[in-house]
Amino acid sequence: MYSQEMTPGRPAPSFDPGLTQQYSGALLRAINKDGTFNIRRPRGLRNFGGSVYMHLVSMTWPKFLALVVAGYLTVNLVFAGMYFALGAVRASVPELELGAFARAFFFSVHTLTTVGYGDLYPVGLAANVLSSVEAAMGLMGFALATGLLFARFSRPTARLAFSERAIVAPFGGGHSLQFRVANRRTNVLMDVQTDVLLMTVEADAAGNLKRNFAELKLERKGVFFLALTWTIVHPIDEGSPLYGKSAADLEKLQAEVLILMRSFDDSFSQVVHSRHSYRWDEVEWSAKFMPAFEVAPEGHLVLDVDRVGQTSKI
């Protein structure tokens, strides 16, 4: 914590959650729909962050699997080319009907995976040394791939279903900004807490555009557990930065509602986080959320996650 007391000649500290107040052009959004920040880095090792491990653990599954397959094929093709150049791979069964390069490629596969069926074998010192090097690389490579696979599976993450749109709905004799969330997984999230910020773009005293951030006070910041749905409500009263604002005003301000949720995952016994945002054009006015669960004849509640974002006009 830092003191808010002003030093003579020094401006009062401004609130910045970590997304900078500097503004030099129109941005798509601060937080993407998948929860990642809308930040890109130039190519190069200096901007990469130096952590190949973190990159491999955090990349998407399709990219990771494509990288593993590409690496597997590349290594086998490289070693196959060397075996082919040596011309030292023989087949114990002539009826294999494989060309010289095909024999070299599949021998590389046998060696890299340490399978060794016996129908293909190296001839000569150079080929045997090369196959020994490849076998060692295969052991280390598959150990590394297995470790990365385990790290990706064991990494605790939250998978929340947010409503497609936030809504402005009646609340307590006035109006409120609301959005709804549910847990897509069957595990239990406990001690769920939410922080909501409003980001706008406005001109300062000098006429320069800058980002402003304001916390949106919530009717309830947390719940003990997220078993069904939770409609998060920000009352739009006199103290709200949204008070008196229309849809046109939010568009002019390039308004975006930033959401950070944290909870305790009882499956991993760790705290997990989730991020989301709604831009001004993702806010539905004069609407209400439809029920996303119902009582079954047997007496238990049935939650339909696909109905979390269903709304109706008021």
> Taking all residues together, what is the mean pLDDT?
85
- Care to count the β-strands? 16
Number of domains in the coordinates?
2
* CATH top level label of the largest domain: Mainly Beta
Looking at CATH, which topology of the largest domain would you report?
Answer: Immunoglobulin-like
Class by SSE composition: alpha+beta
**Biggest pleated sheet:** 5 strands, mixed
C-alpha geometry: elongated
- What is the string of helix and strand elements? HHHEHEHEEEEEEEHEEEEEEE
> Which residue ranges are poorly predicted, with pLDDT under 50 across at least 5 consecutive positions?
1-7
Please state the CA-atom Rg, rounded to the nearest Å.
Answer: 29 Å
The helix content is: 25-40%
Name given to the CATH architecture of the largest domain: Sandwich
Oligomer: single chain
With helices defined by DSSP (H or I, 4 residues minimum), what is the helix count? 6
Can you walk through the features of this model?
The protein is an alpha+beta fold and 314 residues long. The protein folds into two domains: 57-154, Orthogonal Bundle (Helix Hairpins); 160-313, G protein-activated inward rectifier potassium channel 1 (Immunoglobulin-like), CATH 2.60.40.1400. The chain has six helices and 16 strands. The strands form five sheets. Strands 3, 4, 5, 9 and 12 form a five-stranded mixed beta sheet that branches. The longest helix is centred in the middle third of the chain and has 30 residues, at 125-154. It is elongated and about 90 Å long. It starts with 44 loop residues before the first helix and ends with a strand. Residues 1-7 have low confidence and may be disordered.
